[in-house]
Amino acid sequence: MTHFLTRRQCLKSALSASVATVAAGLPLATRAQGLDFLTIGGGPSGGVFNIVATGLANVLRQSYPEAIIDVQPGGSGPNLLRVSGGKADLGITSASNAFDAWNGRDPATPEAPIKNVRGLMTIMQSAVQIWVDGNSDIRSIQDLRGKQVSAGQPGQTSWLAFERLLAAAGMTMEDIESDGGKMNKLSWSESHNALRNGELDAVMWLSLWPHPTVRQNETVRPMRALSFDDAVLEKFLASSGGFERVTLPAGLFEGQAEAANTVGTNTILFASDKMSDELAQNITKAIWDNLEEFKATHALLGNLSAETAGKGMVVPLHPGAKAFYDAQGIAYDASSELAE
């Protein structure tokens, strides 16, 4: 059961917060606009997904000033599960996670593919990045043999992407751990603290770019992202849905003298297929009408435009969002029209 358009759940969830509103004789929800309560799945506190979801909530409150809009902590995988299960109305996820969940390849959904979510908008792009000290002699993925490396923790999106990248290069994690190397199972912050302090040789992550944390590393040492051979990238793309080629430009990091060729996946805003076409269209319109304010939420939203909004969502585009894009003349690609 979903939360939007559910007044009883709104009252139950927000009774204490609404006492003042009741006392003032004001409506608890935007009845005329058709929205009482909306839940957005974001990310860990202080993380990019959480910041973006909070900015989205602020934008939507301008169109739905009397609605209760709640941002919950989450992540790419958890948000798919929550929206699919009716515990959230909107979520942020990566196209690669959405693709794997749609096809039942995500570790969290092996027995129950998630096919009841629909895309609203592509908002950012993440890329597979392996960061090293800009002065390091590590120049290729093969050079990671025998090194101290982190790619998050087993089962996480970045760990799985790294396994696929290594396989495309004819390697495994065991190859890295030969000759004294180690796959260190660390969190994002632990990984970058260790890289900054020289305790790790490389950190691999599927991350938005350029990420502020990597910029912070450069207060201590220059950073450089590895570039991957065409053959490796082609093999990776052949085995991994929801990805595309990405070029990280020269100068992106202090140690980045040359462009780095890699792969990336889009970050998408999505909803349940049970959300009404009218509400999905109005939410998309609310974002678009306040686009510059939304983009000001985080620098990583800077590339969001009419050229990117409807591209690379992987899951089907919600009919309501499609209606808005058609009315605005905004193009959306074939990946947004998968068979339902």
Automatic annotation (TrEMBL):
One Pfam family it belongs to: NMT1_3
InterPro entries assigned: TAT_signal (IPR006311), TRAP_TAXI (IPR011852)
Coiled-coil residue windows: none
Annotated CDD domains: PBP2_TAXI_TRAP
Name under which the protein is recorded: TRAP-T family transporter, periplasmic substrate binding subunit
Gene source species: Roseovarius nubinhibens (strain ATCC BAA-591 / DSM 15170 / ISM)
